[in-house]
Amino acid sequence: MMSKKVVKHVAKLARLGLTEKEITKFQKELSKILDYIEKLKEVEISKVEPTSHSILLKNVMRSDEVNSKVKIQESKLMDLVPEKKEGYVKVKSIFQ
Amino acid sequence: MKGEKLTIKGIHQALMKKEFSALELTKTYLNRIKEKDKEISAFLTINEELALSQAKAIDEMIAQGREIPILAGIPCAIKDNILVEGMKCTAGSKILENYIAPYDATVVRKLKEEKVIILGKTNLDEFAMGSSTENSAFFPTKNPHDLKRVPGGSSGGSAAAVAANFCVLALGSDTGGSIRQPAAFCGIVGLKPTYGAVSRYGLIAFASSLDQIGPMTRTVDDAEIVFEVIAGKDELDSTSVEFPNPNLKFETRNLRLGIPKEYFIKGIDPEVEKSVKNAIRKYEEKGIETLEISLPHTEYALPCYYIIAPSEASANLARYDGIKYGYSIANQKTKKLSDIYFESRGEGFGAEVRRRIMLGTYALSAGYYQAYYLRALKVRTLIRKDFEEAFKKVDFILTPTTPTTAFKLGEKIDDPLLMYLSDIFTVSVNLAGLPAISIPCGKLNELPIGLQIIGRPFEDRQLIKIAKLYVD
Lengths: 96, 472
Fold this sequence. Notes:
The complex is a heterodimer. Chain A has helices at about 5-15, 20-35, 75-80; strands at about 85, 90. By secondary structure, chain A is mostly helical. Chain A starts with a helix and ends in a 7-residue tail after the last strand. The model of chain A has no long low-confidence stretch (mean pLDDT about 90). Chain B is α/β, with parallel strands linked by helices. Classes of the chains: A mainly alpha, B alpha/beta.
């Protein structure tokens, strides 16, 4: 069983605000899912390479220039910002 | 035209012959949605005004005697995790409830160039995480074949919209079965293309190494037409690839179909198994050889998926921070920056999304990375190799799409693990990046059953051909 302490730590890493009730709920649910996932331990993997992508991909590089094909109006993006000031995205101060 | 189930080619010809106008067609579909979607709830947004003006433009083209593209005037629905400029795109989440898409997804741009009529955006499990569309933050969608049952998920709104004849084609997205499973539950055709065959630009990311957009239609012919329009390399998605030239040497007498024994196991409804076996027999009757094969790591696909998909999701969903866009408590004066992150995300994301973010964050965190994430990536290699070995012996693999027919609303929603198990036959395909299609192959108590056909990477066109062979 995953401890409450671990659930709280993971929630902090994930920046998720959880209530005490939710922490208890997640403790049970995540433990059950992880028990099921334990099944993977049956597989012999010592000589296996990992697959992060199903098709062979190389890094795709391009020069750092404005791509004229991407036509997104700046105003449309700024319209979506919850808090802004003088055309900038506003963030709370982090230094007191 | 009233109530009739039309195909893309049928509509194209009727428009050209002026049997009906694009405007009449669009109005018929919009009216049907207005009348009947109250009970099915397939749509989150309807695009009436724009749809009607687009239809008028097509009628003008026809009146002027101009050629119209094959998809011109075709009533279409888009899953609400794919961006259509100027329309809301919620991903079924409260966190994006008021998000207006600032640009078109590449697939949407391509469909618009073909002059489809976008009628609206369809419901889904929040961020495409789910198998029943009950995880939508807004309302559940119902299965048109039985309103007490789920349409499947996560593309449940798209599947229900096609099945209810609210549109002729819909786009879905498939990360672990989200096109194929609802297609099977709703008795329609759902194609998940090879990973990289279709651009993901403008698809709200869930698990980037698994996500793929594909068509959901009533016929295989229609799926083929849509696939040809949306496939291809896109500069804006660096994982998309140039689709290989169609080298269609397709002679049925040389084909071999593999039936993996691991897909006919305890837990599968005997009637579903019978239907799928009948479908296999139909291929045999056409003189195609079938043989039993083994995909030995099948039982590990689901636990492997439930490490990899949540891990990628936890990284992808980090962007919802209450600062740039989406649900935010930033306007509350007393709060500090960290509160904005914790509270905006805690309040904006639903239960299943939070569960998966937690699971993924845990699997990637220090001390657990090797035991969970890295191990899952290695098991993924073994699953991929199972298929590579199998495809040395056979050209296609046939399985049931799902172990059962559509389940009841509420039946699995309180047990996440039980819900995950409904994807047991579909997740391997995403882990291996393969193309797969679900086509209807029978019914049990009026509920549709799906046959899944899996092909080699980038043999999507051949896959479509073999699916057509079943229907013919």
